[in-house]
Design goal:
heterodimer; A: 656 residues; Four Helix Bundle (Hemerythrin (Met), subunit A); 64% helix; B: Helicase, Ruva Protein, domain 3; 0% strand; rod-shaped; C-type_cytochrome_biogenesis (chain B); transmembrane helix (chain B); metal-binding (chain B); heme (chain B)
């Protein structure tokens, strides 16, 4: 009964979306206030209905209602409660429902907090948002209905993929979707602006918070996924250049570019057409991501079981929305006149360089992801594009970005002097070089990767600190002024420093990790990278829905035990799948990463040991980046823009 | 309790494949050769997996390929020869780093070409903007100045 209510709510939500796509749109065109205002209650109703539908599906999972096909295929009565809940989105149908839930949530948020938006713009934004929602409601209802019943319910379910039964992965999809889908609102803003034919500083100020929110969630979502891969896949890699990972990384790169050029629109009223184009492309890439994950056209480790019909449907959605928006763009882009003029050496130019590097990097990832498909369809070459390609073709752009970032951050708007910026950053550059040399001295004759990465990372961190300090002006009371700087300044510095931390982590871990593979017997002790490792015991036990072979191992620094760890090898009998559960001792400077393998003929177990220096810096940096975004989001000008009194409308004034 | 143990044993026998990628028994005694084998393994795709290198994969076929790579190394092959040996047998599909030949040049060249193109467009745009808005109109030449004076004084030159 509850499932049917959920299904019914979903259908109703689809009709509300249709209403919201049409009525406010006509209202905005004709200037009918009542029709425009209808968008707000419609957005609220759409969200509440979708939330009800989602709650109904969650109820079915939590109560293990095996009359629902989806629950049978993805759940089991013995599964821990956390994974019963996360099982709701651990499959194609449920995750699409979460997708539209977030889509309608963003629409509703815009309706609730957008009281300061001009009524016409708001009506159009919500109408475009509802068009996207209507398309996805149709997709779910016609190809991926999560509420299908079974005529003969089985006694128990087939369990969730054991790899997904993990806290990191339980929260990875919601974060990622919040990011992906948040971009729909940026897209709606861009399309609405094109229809109105006006982009100004105020528009930039409204769009930027939503872009920031999307980017933050994408950052956290990608970091969670990468962290999960690190500890779950059994050998401690953190990024695989898998099509599905790329699907989330491309929108991240484009959104990072969008964030930066929206600043130029907001502060300098320049780069408008480019910003609009990026806003369209960002959502385009998130749709392409959805297509890649769900169509099965490009196979990947963790694509959902997929079928061509769904792929075609998503491709049609992609074609309609991208085709429509880009046509509109071509017709209207000429109307966007830029006001701010800038010199070759200026903050604007640096941000253009940032945008260029990020956009090209994104394109490299894109072409690498689809190239196997293109090469096979058009040229008859069956080939693979894997990690070695991406490492070689993508990394140079990131290095260039890191080199110019601190310089661009201290350059003034309009016109700067390169010599002045160089003088301001001389100390940071010298210290970064010293850090690189130190790293080179410590490692004695290995590749240049780690010293270079560490120098770049240090350069980013120190450059961010220097930038912050420069913002405090001259003379007395600089420290006090530091505390009173706008939060956006703090956010900028923190996010840039976070990028530096990630750089250091990636370089140090990739270059300096030590691996040891051997057969160890119980009681054996061996040396890895100067630490002692002992295999103390191995026992077979069982968990709630799996069997496990669990080892007890100790890490020693000489005679002093540093950590006792329990790597496991699990077998999930229902899903018929073995998994490795590495045991990790996390540290700031290094991780110990232990994996237990099969018993060997002639006694003993295969054991893998890794010492991974600076591993946690990779994800710590990502979290710091997201925190920077959060700081920026709480900046006064956004709060003012969000909650400003109505009698003081934000007019399209130049930012100068 | 014994029942459970039997069950566990049965489950393990029935389900457990090799879980670690590189197994201790595959490894070469010579650390330098083994290190080369590992690097080469990262360039080769496990043919039955989805986007995994044979270095990461747990599949039997990946293990066979890893052993093949090591055999070739023991036979004295250079890195390029090993790659060529494997490519001859399995096709270019096995390469994780696509060859830089034929249409693949589009793939490899796309990034740099786009960067140069974008930088060019950006510079041209910036130059045009500056020229059209900021530079003051050029000084008049003497002839133009004379003509202007003439016009202002409403008199033919």
């Amino acid at each position: 009964m509850i499932a049917e209510l959920g299904h019914f709510a979903l259908i109703l939500a689809a009709f509300v979306a249709l209403f919201q796509a049409v009525v406010p749109f006509i209202g905005a065109a004709r200037g009918w206030t009542g029709w425009m205002a209808a968008a707000v209650p419609a957005a609220t109703a759409q969200f509440l209905l979708t939330a009800g539908s989602f709650a109904a599906l969650t109820h079915a999972f939590v109560t293990s209602d095996f009359s629902l096909k989806l629950v049978v295929e993805n759940s089991h009565s013995l599964k821990p409660m956390l994974y019963k809940v996360s099982g709701v989105w651990g499959n194609h149908e449920g995750s699409m429902l979460l997708w539209v839930l977030i889509l309608t949530l963003f629409g509703a948020l815009c309706a609730w907090f957008g009281s300061d938006l001009p009524p016409g713009l708001k009506a159009r934004v919500l109408a475009v948002q509802a068009m996207i929602a209507a398309a996805f409601f149709a997709f779910i209802l016609f190809t991926s209905n999560p509420f299908l019943r079974l005529a003969r319910p089985p006694m128990d379910g087939q369990d969730l993929n054991p790899l997904l039964q993990d806290p990191g992965l339980a929260f990875h999809p919601p974060f990622l979707y919040l990011g992906y889908v948040g971009l729909s609102l940026t897209f709606s803003f861009a399309v609405a602006a094109l229809i109105e034919g006006r982009v100004d500083a105020a528009w930039g100020r409204w769009v930027r918070p939503w872009t920031l929110v999307s980017w933050m969630f994408l950052t956290v979502g990608i970091a969670l996924g990468s962290w999960w891969a690190y500890y779950e896949l059994g050998w401690g890699g953190f990024w695989f250049w898998d099509p599905v990972e790329n699907a989330s990384f491309m929108p991240w790169l484009i959104t990072a570019a969008l964030l930066h050029c929206a600043i130029v629109v907001e502060k300098r009223e320049s780069l408008k057409t480019w910003t609009i184009l990026l806003a369209i492309l960002a959502f385009g890439f998130s749709l392409i991501g959805t297509f890649i994950v769900r169509s099965g056209v490009i196979t990947s480790v963790h694509a959902f079981a997929n079928d061509p019909e769904r792929g075609v449907f998503i491709l049609a959605i992609l074609a309609v929305f991208m085709g429509g928006a880009l046509t509109l763009f071509a017709a209207r882009a000429g109307a966007m006149t830029s006001k701010g003029v800038f010199g070759l050496v200026s903050r604007e130019s640096a941000l253009v360089a940032n945008n260029l590097l990020l956009a090209v990097a994104c394109f490299v990832v894109f072409i690498g992801t689809i190239w196997p498909l293109v090469a096979e369809l058009l040229f008859g070459r069956k080939l693979t594009v894997g990690a070695p390609f991406f490492n070689a073709a993508f990394t140079p752009f990131m290095i260039a970005l890191a080199v110019i970032l601190p310089v661009g951050a201290v350059l003034p708007w309009k016109r700067g002097r390169a010599g002045r910026a160089a003088a301001q950053l001389a100390t940071a550059a010298a210290l970064a070089e010293a850090a690189g040399l130190l790293a080179y001295a410590v490692q004695s004759g290995r590749s240049a990767l780690a010293p270079a990465g560490i120098a770049l990372g240090t350069w980013l961190v120190l450059g961010a600190l220097r930038d912050l300090w420069l913002r405090t002006g001259r003379g007395e009371a600089r420290l006090r002024r530091l505390a009173h700087l706008p939060r956006a300044d703090w956010g900028k510095a923190v996010a840039h420093a976070g990028l530096g931390v990630t750089f250091i982590g990636i370089a140090a871990m990739t270059a300096w990790q030590v691996e040891d593979i051997r057969v160890a017997r119980i009681g054996d002790r061996f040396e890895v990278a100067g630490y002692g490792i002992s295999l103390d015991a191995v026992e077979d036990t069982r968990g709630p829905n799996y069997y496990t072979t669990m080892a007890t191992m100790t890490v020693w620094d000489g005679d002093r035990p540093l950590a006792t760890l329990h790597p496991e090898k699990r077998v999930y009998p229902v899903a018929q799948m073995p998994t490795t559960e590495a045991a990790i001792d996390n540290g700031i400077w290094r991780d110990f990463y232990l994996v237990i393998g099969d018993p060997q003929q002639g006694g003993g177990y295969a054991v893998r040991t890794y010492v991974k220096p600076f591993a946690n810096w990779i994800w710590a940096g990502a979290i710091i980046m997201a925190l920077g975004g959060l700081l920026s989001l709480t900046d006064r000008r956004f709060r003012v823009a969000a909650g400003a009194p109505r009698q003081r409308p934000v007019r399209p004034v130049a930012a100068e | 309790m014994t029942g459970m143990r039997v069950l566990i044993a049965a489950a393990l026998i029935a389900l457990a494949g090799p879980v670690l990628a590189v197994q201790p028994d595959e490894m070469l005694a010579d650390p330098a050769l083994e290190a080369r084998a590992r690097e080469l393994s990262k360039e080769l795709r496990c043919l039955v997996c989805r986007n995994e290198s044979i270095d990461e994969s747990n599949a039997d076929l990946a293990r066979d390929l890893r052993i093949l790579v090591r055999e070739r190394l023991l036979a004295g092959d250079g890195d390029a020869e090993v790659i060529a040996f494997v490519t001859d047998r399995y096709g270019e599909y096995v390469l994780l780093r696509p060859q830089k030949t034929g249409v693949n040049l589009i793939l490899w060249g796309a990034g740099p070409v786009l960067l140069i193109l974008g930088a060019g467009i950006g510079l041209a745009h910036q130059r045009r903007n500056r020229l059209s808005r900021e530079t003051p109109p050029e000084e008049l030449s003497t002839a133009e100045a004379a003509r202007l004076r003439a016009i202002l004084q409403d008199r033919d030159p």
